[in-house]
Amino acid sequence: MPSAIRTLFAGFALLGLAEPARSAPIVPATRQDADRGAASRLADQRSMKMSEELRYQIRLNISDDYAELARTDPQNAALAPIAAILARHHAALSNQFDAFAHYVAEAEKQGVEHFPLYKWTKATIADPVKKAKHVKSFSLHVEGEEVYPKAAADALEADLAPLVGGGLVEKLSKHDTDPAHNPQAPAHLR
Asked: Which of 2, 58, 111, 112 has its CA 20 to 30 A from that of 155?
């Protein structure tokens, strides 16, 4: 699958625009189970199943002094603490602003009607305040994937946490694909 399309689907998932994976419905074994509150047990089972299917992404905000370097030369010696951790986890930096700009360019090339986040993304990269925010923000891709299992995200997060506040990394965050945890495009930008 081409990178731009993977980005599109991962963006949909993180923004709540993608359908979660569906599993077969869980039904009570007997009528008595249903009568004894099986519905609440089933809801718990469904919730557990959905949380097992969630995918995660780690993001870093890199300080102003190093953000441009991370965008243009992520293997630079000044970024060695990040690079060493990423290498252990088979991970790579992806700048958020650059990904947004690529998405807009791809939409304009292929037809914006096929890219539901086009208006919102275009408005974001055109806003100087938002641009300043996103040029410092990097998503981490693990083994080429933009979203990955919780165990991979947790391990990466744990190894990167000591770098926060040390002058290189300003902020570390973990995001999941649950639509309830992700911003939605404003109605006028859909």
From this structure: 2
